[in-house]
Specification:
The complex is a heterodimer. Chain A is of the alpha/beta class. Chain A contains twelve helices and twelve strands. In chain A, the strands form two sheets. Chain A has an eight-stranded mixed beta sheet, sandwiched between helices. Chain A has a four-stranded antiparallel beta sheet with strand order 2-1-4-5, covered by helices on one side. In chain A, strand 4 and strand 5 form a beta hairpin. In chain A, helix 4 crosses helix 6 and helix 6 runs parallel beside helix 7. By secondary structure, chain B is an alpha/beta fold. Chain B has a domain of about 210 residues: Rossmann fold (3-Layer(aba) Sandwich), CATH 3.40.50. Chain B is about 30% helix and about 20% strand. Chain B contains nine helices and twelve strands. In chain B, the strands form two sheets. Chain B has an eight-stranded mixed beta sheet with strand order 6-7-8-3-9-10-12-11, sandwiched between helices. Chain B has a four-stranded antiparallel beta sheet with strand order 2-1-4-5, with helices on one face. Chain B is globular and about 65 Å long. Classes of the chains: A alpha/beta, B alpha/beta. At the A-B interface, helix 6, helix 7, helix 8, helix 9 and helix 10 of A face helix 6 and helix 7 of B.
């Protein structure tokens, strides 16, 4: 497809540790088209953060790329010289981090920080300042011109996150990575941020890779969803397919667990018993087998491939095998 | 008899008026949820109850005894009956103590040294569904959910009558969150505990709380049975909070009521109704100060309350 912006192709990433190689990502494949919002959902330890740092190549020193490619506009980022990679970060690909309290430098004014990140631009200082004020206005900070001279502690958490979004969008990137941008915020502010992101996405026409463990936010914001479990993609598809017709037992259980759709008071809330497998010592077969209530003998011996069920809907589960057989 | 009776509790840090008169009561065995945004004073309320934050005015009665401003000497024996669960599960556990030392620390503090602490540690771990070999682990070896359960075990050690839980599920994955809530529900039933839970997660409140209070700028604006508040929210702020709850369904087009702006500064409290400037339903009358009124167990501080079924 020509309008594909980012393609993750069979990416496997290990961390070398004293206990042996920790298989943090295994055979990850999905893509993001131009102007699309793709959500990655998964619980702690599923590899969401490793995936982001691999895309940006901001990985820890003990990271080993075992196989696969991260193609951005057709070019494999993993092969790019570091100098070129630096040019991409913050201009073509930018990121909004989880904790709005810690992303800004506390001793510089917001205006100064917004000027600093325009270091590539040839515009005059006054122009850069005007651009900064304009971006603050775009994310809904009232009286932006005056607030440029204020420091991070003078803004609330919700405002700081919106400022982080303004800074990330300033270079009009093609891809915005948002790493749990609403997790540290109250529900009312969370909603404000999501709505703001939707507006800005229209306005700037950028693609968004939105990482979250909050299913409600993913359902509301995203066009497509990638579900990760223990370092692998278990299902991916259009947002409606994922939420209305999930094909992997993990996706199904995860949605069942969300208390948001249990309207009456429940005596016992659904859970997923068991633990995520040890990534340094993976069991054979399906990674979700131990916690799955539909596991079959086959699941113990053979790893289910991420199979195409229909156009744009993939799942890695033997239950769908007949459906997937072509 | 009412187990915990908080009346007109006020806390200021210098000019910052954090609690502007909070009143609520908890009966034995009841779970009460305090809900509000960051900065609404939730944490200060339970810290003030436990004597860990100052409270300049008002009254906190536990089992009929006034404990506001009580000395540490008076409070210490009471802490057998009032346990805390802190917000940060790993941060609230000393990194250099084993889980055994951590969960049996309350016995040592209360001078109950004659107990078989090993046996108590095993009993407590079993109660929160952790294997007994966890007694030898250190906090860094635990996942977030396991650390939470250690927090529960420690709170339960002295068989309290009341647990004060600050955001007990914040930062947990949904599958683990359900586990913890089930555990808390189960223990509450078996041990007849009363709880005050603080949270901004309304999905959690619905499943654990018998009654709830909505806190805004250090004042309750609405209070009632959980069912009544969810099905018939009368205060516009409550309605906004309920509607700001994204559902795991892409077709659930919520009739979302946008909350304008951000909470005002506590240094510049608005006149009249303090929610007026952000309220989508504000009317002229709202420039007057609303009083707390209780109708059939449903408390409200609003001059222009919403009615059930009124289009949002």
């Amino acid at each position: 497809m020509t309008d594909t912006l980012l393609e993750i192709d069979r990416l496997s990433v290990d961390y070398e540790t004293a206990r042996g190689d920790l298989k943090a990502l295994r055979d990850i494949s999905f893509d993001i088209r131009k102007g699309e919002i793709v959500g990655i959902v998964g619980e702690s330890g599923c590899g969401k953060s490793t995936l982001i740092s691999s895309i940006l190549r901001l990985t820890a020193p003990n990271t080993r790329f075992r196989q696969g490619e991260v193609r951005f506009k057709g070019e494999d980022l993993l092969q790019l010289p570091e100098r070129k990679m630096r040019d991409l970060r913050g201009s073509d690909i930018s990121i909004v981090f989880q904790d709005p309290m810690q992303t800004h430098n506390p001793v510089l004014s917001i205006g100064q920080q917004m000027l600093d990140i325009q270091h590539r631009s040839k515009a005059s200082k006054a122009e850069k300042r005007a651009r900064a004020a304009q971006m603050l206005g775009a994310v809904g900070i009232p009286d932006p011109e005056a607030r440029l001279d204020q420091f991070p502690h003078e803004f609330s958490g919700g405002m700081r996150q919106r400022i982080a979004i303004a800074m990330a969008l300033m270079s009009e990137p093609d891809l915005l990575i948002a790493d749990e941008p609403t997790t540290a915020l109250d529900a009312t502010l969370e909603v404000q941020i999501i709505e703001r992101l939707q507006e800005l996405q229209q306005q700037f026409d950028c693609a968004i890779l939105f990482i979250s463990h909050h299913l409600g936010v993913i359902a509301e914001l995203c066009d497509r969803v990638v579900v990760m479990y223990a370092g692998a993609v278990v299902e991916s598809g259009e947002v409606r397919e994922i939420f209305h017709d999930p094909k992997h037992p993990y996706t199904r259980r995860l949605i069942d667990c969300d208390p948001g759709h249990i309207k009456e008071r429940a005596r016992v809330l659904p859970t997923i018993p068991g633990e995520v497998p040890d990534l340094a010592n993976l069991p054979g077969g399906c990674i979700f087998r131990d916690r799955c209530d539909q596991a079959m003998p086959r699941c113990a011996s053979q790893v289910p491939p991420l199979a195409k069920l229909k156009e744009g809907h993939h799942a890695a589960c033997w239950l769908n095998h007949e459906e997937a057989a072509e | 008899m009412t187990l915990l009776d908080v009346k007109n509790l006020k806390t200021s840090y210098g000019p910052v008026n954090v609690l502007a008169g909070v009143s609520f009561a908890v009966e034995p065995g009841e779970t009460y949820a305090l809900v509000g945004e960051s900065g609404s004073g939730k944490t200060t309320v339970i810290r003030a109850i436990a004597g860990m934050a100052p409270a300049q005015e008002g009254s906190v009665k536990f089992d009929g005894q006034e404990i506001r401003g009580a000395s540490e000497r008076t409070l210490r024996p009471l802490r057998k009956d009032i346990a805390m669960m802190f917000q940060d599960p790993v941060g609230s556990l000393s990194p250099r103590l084993t889980i055994r030392s951590l969960i049996t620390e309350p016995y040592r503090i209360q001078g109950m040294k004659d107990r078989d602490l090993d046996a108590e540690a095993r009993r407590l771990l079993e109660m929160v569904n952790l294997p007994s070999h966890f007694a030898d682990r250190y906090p860094y070896q635990l996942s977030g959910g396991q650390a939470r359960r250690v927090g529960v075990a420690r709170a339960l050690a002295l068989e309290p009558k009341l647990i004060l839980a600050d955001e007990p599920t914040a930062g947990l994955d949904v599958s683990v969150q359900g586990e913890l809530l089930n555990l808390m529900n189960d223990l509450r039933e078996r041990l007849g505990l009363a709880m005050v839970i603080i949270t901004h997660n309304l999905n959690v409140v619905r499943h654990v709380a018998d009654r709830m209070g909505i806190l805004y700028l250090g004042r309750l604006v609405e209070e009632g049975s959980t069912e009544a508040v969810f099905h018939d929210p009368r205060h516009p702020y409550t309605r906004c909070l309920l509607s700001a709850n994204p559902e795991p369904d892409p077709d659930a087009r919520l009739e979302r009521i946008a909350l304008k702006g951000e909470p005002p500064s506590l240094l510049k409290r608005p006149s009249g109704c303090e929610f007026r400037e952000r309220c989508p339903f504000a009317q002229e009358i709202c420039t007057q100060t609303p009083q707390w009124e209780v109708d059939n167990g449903h408390g409200l501080r609003c001059l222009a309350p919403l009615h059930q079924g009124r289009a949002a």
